[in-house]
Amino acid sequence: MIRCENLHVTFNRGLPTEKLALQGIDLTIPSGEFVTVIGSNGAGKSTLLNTIAGDIKSTQGKIYFDDRDVTKLPATRRTKDIARVFQDPLAGTCGNLTVEENMSLAYGRGKRGTLASALNNKLRKVFKEQLSRLNLGLEDRLDSEMGLLSGGQRQSVSLLMSALQPSSILLLDEHTAALDPKTAALILDISSQIIKEKQLTVMMVTHSMRQALDHGSRTIMLHEGKIIFDLASKERANYQVKDLLNLFAQARTDGAELDDDKLLLGG
Amino acid sequence: MSLYAFLGTLEIGLIYGLVAIGVYLTFRILDFPDLTVDGSFTLGAAVAATLIVTGQNPYLATLLGTLAASCAGLVTAWLNLRFNILHLLASILTMTALYTINLRVMGKPNVALIMEPTVLSPFEGLGLPDMYMKVIFVAVCAIVGGLLVAWFLRTQYGLAMRSVGSNKRMAQANGIVVTEKVYVGLALSNGLVGLAGALFAQTNGFADSTMGIGTIVVGLAAVIIGESLLASRSMLVIVMSCIVGSVLYRFAVSMALNADFLGFQASDLNLITAVLVALALVFPKLRNEWKAKRAIKEQI
After folding, report:
1. What are the residue ranges of helices labelled H in chain A?
2. Mean pLDDT value across residues B249-268
3. Is A104 within 8 Å of chain B by CB?
């Protein structure tokens, strides 16, 4: 479970460039729920994910994982609970390490590295098994340099890596945005498989309204650092992309003036 | 080249092999260009030589020289990580400070170790001529050092360190504490360089305040020469190629200096070094260009 209480993030506080990136986010995501997050550029989607992951320190408010207050925990110590896949396929893997070395790093996520050998045949077998799920032939390229793989292949491996170590939360930050439609579909498919299999609590940021409605069981929209609407599964079932786009357009034109009445209308 | 000169060149090449491994750790593994080594090489030598002169056990002296150099690396890492000083600048600051510290450690610009016991003493008079024994000793040191580093880089901890140099964000997302890896890496790197300094002082019979000048360039030259000759993904081969690169560099320099038709003098060393490093950097690029050109021609 993830719980955010009155979460505020302000960049460049006190400077002329001050930006209120998150302005009082209250959000509870029960264990096993898959939430899609939408919103225009600069709405605070990535900031929210990065704050939950611990990359960004909140200026106010609290974050809990299963009733444990993690607000003050640094990002590296939250990795026991959180797995992530980034938008940039190059960001989630080390280009000059091999596929198996990258997977070994992910296999040790949240644990202290010891002086035991990073790779052995037992691990290689596990990695091969996992890679064969992708049907990309990567299981025979364990010792290829990651940098030689295509963006789609790298993102697929990143995704597998996020599931190598048990975690309860998976944060997907537009993880298909940089891929061609076919690869994106493949990645989404594998994501769904993994999420179901491991019963993860998921937040997926996306720019595609279709994706947002098709995946998960709940959709939230952010605008100027606030959650402007929150669609749970029942009402969401009746929503079409068109409706979402309307809401989206409304948020844009109304901007800061969007108030509670309009929220009610939208919901 | 006489046998004596040959062995001398080999010996220095092997000692600087340890420097090259240290430089490889910072420049390539951590992506942290660290110029501290110019100071920590001398520091290792100065601490070891001073302790030996005051009657300490040479092995203990060497160990303490190594540790002192490691601490110098920690200072650079601290300046960079704690205060966000650019890595290059942080290391230049430490290097500059070390020049004074080395003079203070020795109390004078130069400490002679002639007639003093050294790490080599136990092996003297075992029947092997000194000049061979010295080379074998430093070869064992360099190879054992190289094996240990290669082993380390293949452990979970070592792999984590490599990921820090490759992709910090990914490392962090996998729970790797970046700062810790940088501290450990710099301590390890400078420790190796300090060990090389301590060994250099003992095999050559002196420690001098200026002996470290240019260490970084020599180390880098060795790394680059090794890389361009032995391209490999295996950690063992890469680390050993640092040693090979260092030895080859020494031979290239000594050939250039000894070739009468070139007319070089000993004082031309730095120019030769710069040209060698430039060649080693340019060669792989040119080779690729030639290959590409030939491929195009063959197609036509």
Report:
1. 45-53, 75-78, 99-107, 121-132, 151-162, 181-198, 209-214, 233-236, 241-254, 260-266
2. 85
3. yes
